[in-house]
Amino acid sequence: MIWKSLDDFIAMGGYGFYVWGSYLVTAVIIIAEILMLRARRRGVEKTRQVQIILSEQTKHETTT
Amino acid sequence: MKLNWFKYASPVTFYPLAGKLIPGFALAAAILTVAGLYISFFVAPTDFQQGESYRIIFIHVPAAWMSMFIYIVMAGWAAAGLIFNTRLSSMMASALAPTGALFTFIALWTGALWGKPTWGAWWVWDARLTSELILLFLYMGFLALHAAIDDPRRADRASAVLALVGVVNVPIIYFSVKWWNTLHQGASVSMTMAPKMAATMLLGMLVMALACWMYSIAAALARVRCIILEREQQAEWVANLAKEPT
User: How high is the pLDDT of residue B245?
Assistant: First the structure.
């Protein structure tokens, strides 16, 4: 085992700030991309639903 | 059985295929990330020169590889879009650009955090660092140019030209450590030389690189599905999609 304790692991031999600064920011960026993709997907889905409702309304109006 | 590759060159057939592929790539990315992080922190030994600060390598090098590789793939799709006038190719190029820009930023960010304790500086105007920064600007230029033109097909063509011109920067990044006397160290992995690092360090880096690959594919496919729906909203096949769950 490389690490003697949790504190030792977090300290990263004195380089904790640099190592965790790298990993944390990377994690935040990746999670942000996933969330943004999800939001974009939802947005597209929403406009599609609106369009479907609108097209059905116009269909209804032209037939009646 | 003869497989017809051109079948999937159309958004109509590619859209459901991409949807089926995403969960597999996403799962592979998650498993490889966990395995890669485990090797990075609990298996790979402490570096005798750099101590624990070297552990940044496990994201820095895979991110830098992805930043260059995604650019080449993006430019390839952009070129295919220009030459064959296939709209899906251009959509793939657009779908890859944000993920590529992201990895470029991660490579620069982790590089700065590694440079400070190792070189004593967050940033130096060294050939490797500068050319990687130019790569980030190329990605941003591609995205900005594409967003600035209203007609999507014209935007595809204009940004494809930009992407293709920028390809020249990728070999410059890769060979910069050989061509110039840089502060940045030489290639971490070489095809011709025996690895200079411990086998477990190399393994951790390769597993993390593979995780980045799987993630990038999943992210690009998810994004291209959004782009397809956004761009083809008026098409009949998209309207028919609504009747079935996607």
Answer: 53
Q: Which DSSP string corresponds to B136-205?
A: HHHHHHHHHHHHH-SSHHHHHHHHHHHHHHHTTHHHHHHHHHHHS--SS---SS-SSS--SS-HHHHHHH
Would B6 be classed as within a structural domain? Answer: no
What is residue B195's predicted lDDT score, i.e. its pLDDT? 63
**What is the Cα–Cα distance from B43 to B72, expressed in whole angstroms?**
33
Residue B190 main-chain phi, psi, to 5 deg: -125, 145
Mean pLDDT of the region B31-36: 97
Residue B51: left if φ>0, alpha if ψ -120 to 50, beta else—which one? left
In a domain, B9, yes or no: no
Q: How many domains does chain A have?
A: 1
Do residue B51 and residue A15 have CB atoms under 8 angstroms apart?
A: yes
Q: Taking the model in full, what pTM does it have? A: 0.91
The reported pLDDT for the residue numbered B192 is 65
List CB contacts (< 8 A) between A22 and chain B. Answer: 56, 59-60, 109-110, 113-114
- How many structural domains does chain B have? 1
